[in-house]
Amino acid sequence: MTIVIGLEGKKSAYLGGDSYCGDDEDVDLCDTSKVFKVKNLGVGICGNLSAESVLRYSLKEYSEETITKRWLLEDFPEILREECIDRRVASYNKKTAYLPDDSSFIFALKGKIYVMSSDFGIFRSPRGYNSVGIATPQAAGAMEALLKTNLPPKKKIKYALGACCSLSQFVRRPLIIMEFKA
Fold this sequence. Notes:
Blueprint: E1 3-8, E2 12-17, E3 20-22, E4 27-29, E5 35-38, E6 41-46, H1 49-58, H2 69-86, E7 91-93, E8 96-98, E9 104-109, E10 112-116, E11 122-123, E12 129-133, H3 136-146, H4 153-167, E13 176-181
Antiparallel strand pairs: 1-2, 1-12, 2-13, 3-4, 5-6, 6-9, 7-8, 9-10, 10-11
Helix pairs in contact: 1-2, 3-4
């Protein structure tokens, strides 16, 4: 349970996340960032720690030349799905693999933001922002209002994350915001 917000800027994409780690009973802070870079791909993660590990390490073998929009949309979902199946992280429903219910991923690539859904499909919103995690409704409301301001992108994400901290018991500071150049 957490939040990661992605925002497209003029020459960069931005990802920002909180540090919550826990569930309904236990609350702690993560000592590793939920937002990180692998080669030329920005990554934001929410949820299942096993799925997170598979994602972090399945990306390391690919070069920056390989990690393109086409690769992200067409090849990577199958690569990750197979890795999750092999490591028994994915769940099955009528011969289809799904990410664990609480797992979500968001990516920044060449100035654009993409979200991976639980069926490993990847999409991009035309709104220029998106989020994953338990506080997605709060993040969407905050981002929609902040888009109308002249604030720099990092400030927009900071304020949206701050709103999520105020409105969700499952979102905690410190906040990490990263810029990924196009």
